[in-house]
Design a protein that fits this description.
The complex is a heterodimer of chains A (about 55) and B (about 325). Chain A has about 55 residues and is mainly alpha-helical. Chain A is about 50% helix and about 0% strand. Classes of the chains: A mainly alpha (about 55), B mainly alpha (about 325).
Chain lengths: ~55, ~325
């Protein structure tokens, strides 16, 4: 698995070989905060400390 | 009878607990919120061909462990919503100990064969020990990615791995199948931790992780990796309560690739889970498959908003 630093290098590399997966992930660096917030609020359901009764029991 | 009522009744039927009204009240209060994680052993048991009733002792054990872990976690994190604030640190710690013992008792009192019971107890005990170690590593605020993943592996993954493992054992799954379900649970737990970090980082107003100088995955990425906004991010991170600082810091997180990194980590784990699932013979595979699909669904949705189909990402 790539280290964080290697991931950043890979994500921003501009090789002549197209890599769809990398390009899709790179598009996430150009989304708005609102788009990410929509998703993270949806993710909240899965958070295990907040599950069911919230961290406050 | 509702399954949460079954779990609660089973808990209350255990020795000593009928006479400990405060603990019973606490358990009932949490059960009324229908925590979805309590269903994991049942899901695993059904996946391997067992029944809901067979898995109830495992669900009770996982319910007790879940509450115990959260009570302690709230104290370690000084969470303002924690039970310790209501009853005090000492009593909260004592409740956590009692619930850990109760989780073992749920398995000891089950109808599983002696050899399976031993395996169940070993699995649960190992989970509790590993989780406690993970909690201890976490409060030391890991500063690099190796330490970060060590915390995830120890703190977040074992609970979920154990939940599926216990369910599979109660469903009389062969050893290799039960082991695969445990691994799937661990991957699920790791994905939940990444979700948790994404949510904490993007929450508004600033989450306690920001305020306490902690380093959830996206923040760790932005602090560790070379990128044009790194110096500015460090300034904002040190002074996150300043006006507009949180918004600017969150925008840097997106631009520097921290979100992409987290999404990549989610997708890699999801792919690994799919590979394990594909080679695991389960009578009711869809039960586990739907669990793994649900935890990655928000990611598919995000890509859909960008016009990128799920098929373009699977198997990449």
């Amino acid at each position: 698995m790539l280290s964080m630093q290697d991931f950043r290098k890979w994500l921003t590399s501009t090789t002549t070989h197209p890599n769809d997966y990398r390009d899709h992930l790179a598009r996430l660096t150009r989304v708005s905060r609102g788009q990410i917030l929509n998703i993270t609020s949806e993710l909240a359901w899965y958070i295990w400390y907040a599950d069911g009764a919230a961290s406050s029991l | 009878m509702d399954v949460y009522e079954q779990i609660t009744n089973s808990f209350l039927g255990m020795p000593y607990l009928d006479a400990w009204s405060e603990l019973a009240v606490l358990f009932k209060r949490i059960a009324s919120g229908k925590p979805s994680h309590w269903m994991l052993p049942i899901l695993a048991c059904e996946a391997v061909g067992g029944t809901l009733d067979q898995a109830i002792p495992a669900a009770v054990a996982i319910a007790c462990s879940h509450i115990s872990i959260i009570i302690v976690d709230d104290m370690l994190d000084s969470d303002p919503r924690g039970e310790y604030l209501r009853i005090g640190n000492g009593r909260a710690a004592n409740f956590a100990i009692a619930l850990q013992a109760a989780s073992m008792d749920a398995l000891i009192g089950s109808k599983a064969s002696p050899s399976v019971r031993l395996e169940l107890l070993y699995s649960l005990n190992k989970m509790m020990l590993t989780t406690a170690h993970g909690q201890d590593l976490d409060i030391q605020n890991p500063a690099d990615e190796t330490s970060y993943w060590q915390v995830v592996e120890n703190k977040s993954a074992p609970f979920f791995g154990c939940a599926l493992h216990l369910g599979a054992l109660f469903g009389k799954a062969p050893g290799d199948i039960a082991k695969n379900l445990k691994r799937l649970g661990q991957l699920y737990g790791e994905m939940i931790q990444i979700h948790d970090d994404l949510n904490d980082t993007m929450a508004m107003p600033a989450n306690s992780d920001w305020l306490q100088g902690r380093r959830p995955l996206p923040i760790l990425f932005a602090l560790s990796v070379d990128h044009p906004g790194r110096t500015r991010f460090m300034e904002l991170y040190q002074n996150i309560s300043a006006e507009n600082a949180l918004q600017e810091a969150q925008e840097i997180l997106i631009r520097c690739g921290a979100m992409s990194y987290c999404v990549d980590q989610l997708l890699r784990r999801h792919q690994t889970a799919q590979d394990i699932l594909n080679k695991t013979l389960l009578p009711n595979k869809e039960r586990v498959d739907s669990l793994m699909q649900a935890v990655v669904a928000p990611v598919w949705k995000l890509f859909e908003t960008l016009g990128i189909a799920r098929s373009a990402l699977v198997g990449s």
